[in-house]
Each structure stands twice: as C-alpha cells, then as structure tokens.
Amino acid sequence: MKLLQASVCLISLILVLPSIFAASSSEDFDFFYFVQQWPGSYCDTQKSCCYPTSGKPAADFGIHGLWPNYKDGTYPSNCDATKPFDSSTISDLVSSMKRNWPTLACPSGSGEAFWEHEWEKHGTCSQSVINQHEYFQTSLGLKQKTNLLGALTKAGINPDGNSYSLESIRGSIKASTGFTPWIECNRDGSGNSQLYQVYLCVDRSASGLIECPVFPHGKCGAQIEFPSF
Ligand code: 5GP
Ligand code: 5GP
C-alpha cells in the first residue's frame, strides 16, 4: 500500500513539474514599449555606424524592439534561455525584416544578430502572450500602422538637418497615431541634441496602442535636430 501511495505521489509530481517550469519561464509584464530608431541619428554620432550587408536602408524609421515593461518603470529581461532565436520560425518575415528592422551596428551584419538580441533579451519575456513568430510579426505590423515618417512629414517636419520643436514632433505623432509618444534624443558629431528614438506603448495582449502608463527617463532640448539619412 505504501509503495502504491509513493508511486502515485511520484507520478503526480512528474506530471505537475513541467507546468511549474513553464509558468516561471514566461514572466508577466504590464505593457510594451514599441521603439523605433531614426537611422540618420544612429549614424551621424561620433561612433558612426555600418550599413547592413544588404545595403543602405531606406530613409525611414526602423524598428529597434518591442519591450515588455512594468508599470513601475522596471522591466524583465532574458526570461527564457530554453527558447533561443530560431530564424527558421520567421523565414516568411525575413525579407520584410531586412527592410523594416535593419541593423546599423558595426561590423555590418544581415540583421540576425540584432533580431536575436531583441528576441532573447525582450521577446522571451512576452511568451505568455506571443510566440517568436508573433513577436516579429506584431512588430512589423506596428511599424506599418504607426508610420512615423508619414506623421512627421505631414506636419512639415522633414529629415533635412533642420531643428524642430520637441512639442511639434510630439504633437504631430499624437495627431496621427492618436497616442502620445516619448522622444529620446542623442547627440550628433558636433554635440547637438537630435531625434533618435520614438517610443509608443502597446497593451499587454499586443493588440494595439495605448497611452503609456509610465515614460522612460531622459531629456531632449526644446528644439532638436532631425538629420537626413
Ligand atoms: P539605454 O541604456 O541605451 O537607454 O538602453 C539600453 C537597452 O536597455 C535598451 O536598448 C533596451 O534593451 C533596454 N532598456 C532601456 N530602457 C528600457 C525600458 O524602459 N524598458 C525596457 N523594457 N527596456 C529598456
Ligand atoms: P539594446 O540596446 O536593445 O539592449 O541592445 C541593442 C543591441 O543590438 C546592442 O548590442 C547593439 O550593438 C545591437 N544592435 C545591432 N544593430 C543595432 C541597431 O541598428 N540599433 C541599435 N540600437 N542596436 C543595434
């Protein structure tokens, strides 16, 4: 009888254990930041940049990443080493990723190292909601839907090396997407503050934009440069 009880116990444990591990490998979070970068501002810094092996990207915003975040401003990262980046799961998306998620880091690469980094650091923390294919597909859809360059140029804000007010940049993106963006600046080779990245927030089921529960930190000038690319 004891032996029977012990085996029932052991079998239940074996059945329950995997679900405990599955639950802890995909951490929870409150919302996403969807972050896009202006290539001109990545490249005109002191550090400079390298074009991808497929050639110079279009003069358009590129995806940086889709980042799960907590409402208190902190965020989970590198949540699941058992789910490495696997390009075979996104073979149908790769040509669109090369255009919309180009890498500008040196040395030149195809983009895979950048996508791998974003999936492993951020994407693995979103698996309670989206899998690897959905992570990249959702990001591509958001880029198309938000059309940042369209929003800015419609308001007369062009990547021409001139300076524009931060307020007009924020306002034009809000007018076009319906949501308030966070603008991150960096400095060009001469030290001028310029439009580097745009953050928009996405609800935790990755179905659409929301107003950001919390903004990142950092500061731009009141007037910032929008460099050409
Ligand atoms: P940096 O220190 O250059 O602002 O950010 C370095 C990296 O840390 C980012 O590319 C991103 O991977 C991560 N990171 C920075 N700030 C945030 C944030 O507010 N939320 C999340 N989820 N990741 C962030
Ligand atoms: P994060 O800042 O998202 O944690 O890390 C970005 C990582 O991706 C860095 O290691 C950076 O070198 C690499 N990377 C590759 N291509 C790009 C790019 O085009 N933009 C940015 N921001 N990082 C890139």
From TrEMBL:
<keyword id="KW-1015">Disulfide bond</keyword>
<keyword id="KW-0255">Endonuclease</keyword>
<comment type="similarity">
    <text>Belongs to the RNase T2 family.</text>
</comment>
<dbReference type="InterPro" id="IPR001568">
    <property type="entry name" value="RNase_T2-like"/>
</dbReference>
<keyword id="KW-0456">Lyase</keyword>
<dbReference type="InterPro" id="IPR033130">
    <property type="entry name" value="RNase_T2_His_AS_2"/>
</dbReference>
<keyword id="KW-0378">Hydrolase</keyword>
<feature type="signal peptide">
    <location>
        <begin position="1"/>
        <end position="26"/>
    </location>
</feature>
<dbReference type="InterPro" id="IPR036430">
    <property type="entry name" value="RNase_T2-like_sf"/>
</dbReference>
<dbReference type="InterPro" id="IPR033697">
    <property type="entry name" value="Ribonuclease_T2_eukaryotic"/>
</dbReference>
<protein>
    <submittedName>
        <fullName>Uncharacterized protein</fullName>
    </submittedName>
</protein>
<dbReference type="InterPro" id="IPR018188">
    <property type="entry name" value="RNase_T2_His_AS_1"/>
</dbReference>
<keyword id="KW-0732">Signal</keyword>
<keyword id="KW-0540">Nuclease</keyword>
<dbReference type="Pfam" id="PF00445">
    <property type="entry name" value="Ribonuclease_T2"/>
</dbReference>
